[in-house]
């Protein structure tokens, strides 16, 4: 089952991750994507997992090559996320039995990722097309599972879920300046606000 919210962390260095991961987890965000574009990500994953609350999924994103995918799996990534539709990377995760969310934008890219065995496909950058794009995709691809990413704000979440999103992926609008020394209390408040939005959708 896909966690409804995936938080995307991109920092100057992976030594900024741990406090933010813990605040996210303690305030209801149970899936966290650490990005390969952040120096030290793979080296830090094991220690972050040890200190994070139980039940938190910690994945690795911005995976662009098979070697990166294998390295992330070797250090225990719970899921992989890619910015592109790389069929070899998808196959690597599928063979390992690890969820993967490959990125795509066009119907061809998104279908190719889904057809290759992706857990869900990441629509990126989602804000360019908006929630109605999922409805268009569902015409030819009624079963496709889509996770919008890129420019998705907390206030946008209801519209994306109403359109049929399997989950939402949030970076800057959720994380803010927390990875740059910002107020973790404000991050916790944004997490709680997001949690309230998701809870209201589940009740509805």
From TrEMBL:
PROSITE patterns: ALDOLASE_KDPG_KHG_2
Name this polypeptide is given: Bifunctional 4-hydroxy-2-oxoglutarate aldolase/2-dehydro-3-deoxy-phosphogluconate aldolase
Listed Pfam families: Aldolase
Gene3D superfamilies named in the record: Aldolase class I
Subunit structure: Homotrimer.
Keywords, alphabetical: Carbohydrate metabolism, Lyase
Organism per entry: Rhodococcus jostii
Record bears the keyword Phosphoprotein: no
């Amino acid at each position: 089952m896909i966690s409804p919210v995936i938080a995307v962390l991109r920092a100057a260095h992976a030594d900024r991750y741990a406090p933010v991961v813990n605040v996210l987890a303690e305030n209801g965000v149970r899936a966290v994507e650490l990005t390969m574009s952040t120096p030290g990500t793979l080296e830090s994953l094991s220690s972050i997992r040890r200190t994070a609350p139980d039940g938190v999924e910690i994945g690795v994103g911005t995976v662009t090559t098979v070697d990166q995918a294998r390295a992330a799996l070797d250090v225990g990534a719970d899921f992989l996320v890619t910015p592109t539709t790389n069929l070899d990377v998808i196959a690597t995760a599928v063979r390992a039995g690890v969820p993967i969310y490959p990125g795509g934008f066009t119907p061809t890219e998104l279908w190719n990722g889904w057809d290759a065995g992706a857990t869900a496909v990441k629509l990126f950058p989602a804000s360019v097309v908006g929630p109605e794009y999922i409805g268009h995709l569902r015409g030819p691809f009624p079963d496709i599972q889509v996770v919008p990413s890129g420019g998705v704000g907390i206030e946008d979440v209801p519209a994306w879920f109403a359109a049929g999103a399997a989950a939402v992926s949030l970076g800057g609008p959720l994380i803010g300046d927390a990875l740059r020394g910002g107020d973790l209390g404000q991050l916790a408040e944004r997490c709680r606000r997001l949690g309230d939005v998701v809870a209201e959708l589940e009740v509805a």
